[in-house]
Amino acid sequence: MGKRIFYFLLTNVLVLLTISIIFSIFGSNYIQNGQLLLGPLLIVSAVIGFTGSFISLAMSRWMAKRMMGVRVLDPNGPLSSEERAVVDMVHRLSRAAGLVHMPEVGIYESAEVNAFATGPTKKRSLVAVSGLLVEMDEDAVEGVIAHEVAHVANGDMVTMTLLQGIVNTFVVFLARIVAFAVSRFVRDELAPIVHFAAIIVFQLVFSILGSIVVFAYSRHREFHADRGGADLAGKDKMRHALESLKAYTNRISKDDTSIAAFKISGRKKTAIFSTHPDLDERIKRLA
């Protein structure tokens, strides 16, 4: 899940900046006679914000495959016994979740135990795993995969996209207000350049601040996916999966950067920037 959110946010920031630059170059009608028109600016901000969010959603599965090096498993092709077991488990749990179209199933190389689900729709989703079969027993693997399938069945990527669209709207809106104010303090001939540069800078700053809201929602959805995973695989397997993840994190060094990539257990001091709640809290909530 942490991987999914990270790449979605990264793509969103890049797409948002690109669209913003295009709008800035070709101009817009929210500044007239040296005055900032808040109504038109809000409309422009919503167009940029939601366009960026939905483009990021459309690219999410493709980005995950390319950036993570995911090897998609063909259910009708030759597979090893372990690969076949993963595909069969994902498909079985997906049918139990009521999904009509089976997610793509992928495996990728990674130093850490990991799994994520992504995709623009339930019809075009992807569940990818790494290291689960080596570090966990079959029941724990089933719990982890059930959790990811629950994300797909819950439509978490779509609701995340709508939330990101709202956040983007305010990011674009506030960045342009601040940029306009900053440009008033320089000479007229420099104002357009300062205004353009300030938009980029403040949009990045506000995007980072806005990600706190997205991360908070992500942590909230993890509890829902845990309950969904318990419904699909059984409460005992879901709890066993979480306890296995906790045991894995305890076995490695606290300074191991691979845990930061997995994001399965946010440290309390950086909780607002974690995509996942603390594992102890997840186990407690599930119980």
TrEMBL record:
Cofactor(s) it depends on: Zn(2+)
GO molecular function, one term: peptidase activity
Co-factor remark: Binds 1 zinc ion per subunit.
E.C. numbers: 3.4.24.-
UniProt membrane topology term: Multi-pass membrane protein
Domain of life: Bacteria
Transmembrane segments: 7-31, 37-58, 166-186, 192-217
InterPro entries: HtpX_protease, Peptidase_M48
Top-level EC class: hydrolase
This protein's UniProt keywords: Cell membrane, Hydrolase, Membrane, Metal-binding, Metalloprotease, Protease, Transmembrane, Transmembrane helix, Zinc
Listed GO biological process terms: proteolysis
Record localization: Cell membrane
Domain Peptidase M48: from-to ranges: 82-286
One Pfam family per UniProt: Peptidase_M48
NCBIfam families on file: PRK05457.1 (NF003965)
Family listed: Belongs to the peptidase M48 family.
Protein name: Protease HtpX
Name of the gene: htpX
